[in-house]
Amino acid sequence: HVLNGEDPSIDYFLKIPAKNRIIYSKKDFPPNIRLKLLGDFNLENAVAAYHAAKLLGIEFDAIKRALEKVEGVPGRLEFVKKEPFSIVVDYAHTPDALEKVYKTLGENLICVLGSAGGGRDKWKRPEMGKIADRFCKKIILTNEDPYDENPETILEDIERDIAQKSKLRKILDRKEAIREAIKSAQAGDTVIITGKGAEPWLMGPNV
Q1: Helical axes 40-55 vs 60-69, angle rounded to 10°
Q2: Rounded CA gap, 76 and 93, in Å?
């Protein structure tokens, strides 16, 4: 087992028997490996990969070369544009992932987000709205994967806990929502498109 000691669920995983077990944290990442990936979550993943490779008997120099070679992961904090403003896509589709992405990117965020339908994890919708309310200077709610649900109802669920309605827009057409976010961006802003940003299709009621 290669376990993240900073994971809130660590006690659960510690109860599972294992022949070998390593508990790691971000502090365990070797300082002489230069990681190019942004964000604490990428650092945590890199430490996990490092320890898993060690358990498999891979030599340090090979691990170092592999980790330093990674320029980015498609759809994970992927910068499409950096000047005069940034455009970033990330697959974040849970409250925890969304908060980590927003914290990593910092201020002046123009956030395009939605939530999947199909009756899955409805509890997370208002939570994601609440997080966007805290971190984003502009929020554009849009379609993601509605499946058999009414897309407008999904957006209403996300909107429920957004207190600052003045910075909120709802644009159901995803392409139009992204277009509007980019049009409104100024120098120093970051347009962050989460959820379906790395997938080229949608599942809707008519699919």
Answers
A1: 150
A2: 11
Could you report the per-residue pLDDT of 13-32, keeping only the tens digit for each?
A: 999 999 989 999 999 899 99
Could you write out the DSSP letters of every residue in 35-90?
----SHHHHHHHHHHHHHHHHTT--HHHHHHHHHH---BTTBSEEEE-SSSEEEEE
Q: Exposed, middle or buried, 201 (CB in 10 Å: 0-12/13-18/19+)? A: exposed
> Average per-residue pLDDT in the chain?
92
Alpha-carbon distance of 203 to 149, in angstroms, equals: 10
Locate 207 and state its tokens.
């699919």
Q: Distance (Å, rounded) from C-alpha 35 to C-alpha 46?
A: 8
Cα–Cα distance for residue pair 121/174, rounded to 1 Å: 21
Tell me the C-alpha distance between 12 and 116, whole Å.
28
Torsion of CA 90, 95, 99, 100, to 10 degrees: -60
Contacts of 202 (CB under 8 A, 6+ apart): 143, 144, 145, 146, 174, 196
- Give the C-alpha separation, 207 to 147, whole Å: 8
Q: What are the backbone dihedrals phi and psi of residue 138, each rounded to the nearest 5 degrees, phi first?
A: -135, 140
